[in-house]
Amino acid sequence: MDSTEEVETIVSSAEEINKVLKAVGIPLIRYQEKKRIRYQLDGIVFELDFWPRIPMVLEIEAPSVDEVKQGAKLLDLDWNKAIFVDQKVLHDQYYGIDLNELHDYSFPTKET
Amino acid sequence: MTENILSPTGYTIPMDKEIEARFIGLAQDDIEQKLKSAGARHIGDYFFREWIFACPEWFKDHRRLRVRTDGTKTWLTQTPISKYLRPRYEPISARPRSDDEGVLDALREGVDAGIAEIGHIPCGLRICSSSAALRLGRSASSTAPSASLAEGRTSLATRAGGIVRWRSKSQSDLGSGQYRGSRDHSIVRRGN
Fold first, then answer.
1. What mean pLDDT do residues A76-83 have?
2. CB B31 to CB A48 under 8 A?
3. In whole angstroms, how large is the CA radius of gyration of chain A?
């Protein structure tokens, strides 16, 4: 099961925080874009993710494993086909795309 | 007790822990039809832009700082090594916060990855192997040229034209009495 521990905070401006990080010397590794359609049913969140170079990825999130399984069952999905790696590894393992090699992973026509 | 938090794009969901699984090879129309039939609520459509920052010495641990925006809100996230090393089924702990401690946490978590705290209230942070520093504090004035997150609120800034070179003479022109440096140490002081 994919799991990670993150520390996250809301900032007011992507452009400004990017300037700060660049100014202090943290290299920009990659710029990327993703389209997402989100549904929610009780405590289960369903996210249809669209990346520039791969087909749709469905992500089911919930506070417990049982609820994630329940979400999969709701959609008649085979739990044995569930993928428990993050998007970067998924790109690499299933589509042969090494995101480390991409500095710009954006859609051909950028949305505003 | 489960804490409700504001997640990306603004909906609230209990997320003191979070488990996720992915599926591929599906038809969008089919999935959406099943979701609607089951009574799922369409929360929204989003377009995310994301900038991923990492020092070279972080690569081996997959650590990174992410700046992500959906056009409405912007998040700064520090992602540690955990997802690659932690055992499966261990829940996520997400702690989004919008105060200065949240910003500090996001950066301070990087200490293990090479960010060193060099100051105190507010905090100076040494980044990568460079000599630059960040200042985090609360200030109603825009004394820093680069990034005041919000006037009168927490600010995160580099100083002196965008970069503070600590342990260098350039500290002396920072002014405003908010930054004091010496040849051996740098102390970042709270703003007015």
1. 95
2. yes
3. 17
